[in-house]
Amino acid sequence: MSSHGPFWTLPSTFLTGSAAAGGFGLVNSVANVGGFAGPYLMGLLRGSSGSYRSGLLVLSGVSLAGTLLALRLRRATVLVAVRPAAVTGVPS
Predict the structure, then answer these.
(1) In order along the chain (92 residues), what is the average pLDDT of each group of 10 residues?
(2) Structural domain boundaries enclosing 53
(3) Which of 53, 62, 84, 91 is most buried, most CB within 10 Å of its CB?
């Protein structure tokens, strides 16, 4: 449950305005798909192997992959152009 806080703050860290709203929508969609696929996959693997081990290994691998992906994200650096004084009208 400790991953929920950082997970929900990622869109606002990298996006602003209406893009942030779309980011929250994407997070919600991924959560809904995960809410269906996780238990389904666990049941499927439990039925085929007779043990919960394979399902837990797959789900932990997916969590690890998500963690590595989140660690690779970097905040975009905004470059600000420096304008000469003659262009801006401010004396030097």
Answers:
(1) 72 78 85 90 92 91 86 64 57 55
(2) 4-88
(3) 62
